Amino acid sequence: MITVNGVAQEHVDETVNDLVQRLNIEPRGIAVAIDGEIIRRADWGDTPIINESVIEIVTAVAGG
């Protein structure tokens, strides 16, 4: 199991990039953190999702 934005999901052998695509999330303007560590977008394709990871996917918003 992994946790994505507070929701438990089955663990699938995939990278961060695969996860974002599988969840149908537009990658522009988002940040991904695994276990509290931000993953650079350039590393998404090489960063595997490990079982029991806690993943946060957030959208950057502008405003004041």
Rg over alpha carbons: 11 Å
What is the percent of helical residues? 10-25%
| Total strands | 5
CATH architecture: Roll
Give the overall shape, derived from the CA principal axes: globular
What are the low-pLDDT stretches, counting only 5+ consecutive residues below 50?
Answer: none
Number of helices: 1
Q: Structural class, from helix and strand content?
A: mainly beta
Can you offer a commentary on this structure?
11% of the residues lie in helices and 31% in strands. The protein is mainly β and 64 residues long. It has one domain: Roll (Ubiquitin-like (UB roll)). The longest helix has 7 residues, at 16-22. The chain has one helix spanning 16-22, and strands at 2-4, 7-9, 30-34, 37-39, 54-59. The protein has a five-stranded mixed sheet with strand order 2-1-5-3-4, with no helix packed on it. It has one helix and five strands.
Which properties best describe this structure?
64 residues, mainly beta, Ubiquitin-like (UB roll), five-stranded mixed β-sheet, 1 helix
Describe what is shown at a glance.
The chain has 64 residues and is mostly beta strands.
What topology emerges from the helices and strands here?
Layout: E1 2-4, E2 7-9, H1 16-22, E3 30-34, E4 37-39, E5 54-59
Parallel strand pairs: 1-5
Antiparallel strand pairs: 1-2, 3-4, 3-5
